[in-house]
Amino acid sequence: xxxxxxxxxxxxxxxxxxxxxxxxxxxxxxxxxxxxxxxxxxxxxxxxxxxxxxxxxxxxxxxxxxxxxxxxxxxxxxxxxxxxxxxxxxxxxxxxxxxxxxxxxxxxxxxxxxxxxxxxxxxxxxxxxxxxxxxxxxxxxxxxxxxxxxxxxx
Length: 154
Description:
By secondary structure, the protein is of the alpha+beta class. The protein is built from 5 helices and 7 strands, in the order αβααββββαββα.
């Protein structure tokens, strides 16, 4: 499966910048895996029935963590956000697909919203306002300031 943007480029149009959802989306699943390891270690020295309960908790956390990591990977894999020489393109989804495209000359403003952790680790939400085209919000985008600069520097 090729990239969506490569399939829809117009003649003479070039990709100037590509990004996706930030890797922080893996954190819930990785946290579950860490909890699973802690429960597994604690089960080794636990007395009586506590050892079995901790093993069950470890297995449950490992399973939930695996599901969350897979969901995060799939979400990142099926989300593309690009700035070309002519437009902004955002695609998310695999079977059920949602796309957003806006010509660069129709972009009125690009707002970046970053929390403290978002600033430290490099993610944020972007709001693109179009002239007569409404508002589109892109969440958890990696390197949002670079993305905004590629839109506004056309």
